[in-house]
């Protein structure tokens, strides 16, 4: 009898934890995070994890000023019940020398801030959240887009082998000049002021554009940066501009409203591959983590192209960051669902899908057919290919 009781007790001790683990597994499945769950992004509360990526559309009015048509475009995508949990605005230049494409908006004049206020008010009326992507293109520009007598500025005087959108069409970019050390500090301050302007214009926060071969990345990658001052040479020096910008922006508006976009291996805009990309970007992310800002938005692979463009361990990079992690590039519905459910990402950013599907959030949630994009109306123009894409009937 004693043996029977001991055996019974032993079985009981064995079965109980197995049962508890089974129930715990079921509970975990029930609590599995979904793409459509809320997310606290620093100080910004999102209703879902579907993010509208920044999308250059070249439709600002004279003076690089947003206007009513732009407000309508963003408003159409702002309702979190059908659209984005977070909208990241198109790149908006921090000063006149930051412009690289025809009719892109700025965020440095009173008129531009008033125009952006039309946009942010429209988004907030729908219950949406929007951050401004603040941008300096560096050498990816053309003299016809800049103040008279000016040329593009960069970390380098090397010209990029690429084209940009000018008043006469797509033209080769112009020869840049390298910023002086003193000028680099002035550009850092422009980013700081642009962040303040964004908050004054009603944005919920900002994303610093540190990707796609523009100015921040022109400093960060040794394929482009050939400087010999404190902003060139070693990884620590090349990352200094990015870290200085992020430090200034966080101090100005608070880290809970700040994010950055990075693209460790994209070949966009003739940036070239860094000689040690993981070492470079892991150093940068480790240093940025000290600032404790809200999110990193990372482009996996080649921007708008192959996700496996070059070897890079994005999961390992993510482990160096304690804030929210937004992924982008080539995600379909199933990939996005899996990324959030497995913890690979906290949110997923969609670009071109949001152009032709203003109700993309609903279509993803209900697994509905997507409207295809008309490439011919991507850049410039009026409402055609901009605000005339219709949502599905309720």
Q: What's the helix and strand layout?
A:
Elements: H1 2-30, E1 39-41, E2 44-46, E3 50-52, H2 68-76, E4 86-93, H3 110-125, E5 130-135, E6 153-154, E7 163-166, E8 169-172, E9 177-178, H4 181-200, E10 205-209, H5 215-220, H6 235-238, H7 240-253, E11 258-262, H8 277-289, E12 295-299, H9 314-318, E13 324-328, H10 333-341, E14 347-350, H11 352-356, H12 360-366
Parallel strand pairs: 3-4, 3-14, 4-5, 5-10, 6-9, 10-11, 11-12, 12-13, 13-14
Antiparallel strand pairs: 1-2, 7-8
Helix pairs in contact: 2-3, 4-7
Features:
394 residues, TIM Barrel, alpha/beta
Note down, in words, how this protein is organized.
There is one protein chain. Helix 10 links the parallel strand 13 and strand 14 (347-350). The N and C termini lie far apart (69 Å). An eight-stranded parallel β-barrel has the order 3-4-5-10-11-12-13-14, surrounded by four helices. Strands 1-2 form a two-stranded antiparallel sheet. Strands 6-9 form a two-stranded parallel ribbon. It is an alpha/beta fold and 394 residues long. Helices cover 35% and strands 15% of the residues. Residues 1-30 have low confidence and may be disordered.
> How would a crystallographer describe the biggest sheet?
8 strands, parallel, barrel
CATH superfamily: Aldolase class I
Order of helices and strands: HEEEHEHEEEEEHEHHHEHEHEHEHH
Radius of gyration: 23 Å
Helix amount: 25-40%
Query: What's the CATH class label?
Result: Alpha Beta
Taken as a percent bin, the fraction of beta residues is: 5-15%
CATH topology title: TIM Barrel
Quickly give the structural class: alpha/beta
Strands in their spatial order, largest beta sheet: 3-4-5-10-11-12-13-14
Unreliable spans are 1-30
Average pLDDT number: 93
Compute the number of helices. Answer: 12
Number of discrete domains: 1
Oligomer: single chain
First-residue to last-residue Cα separation = 69 Å
Total strand segments: 14
- Tell me the overall shape: globular
CATH architecture assignment name: Alpha-Beta Barrel
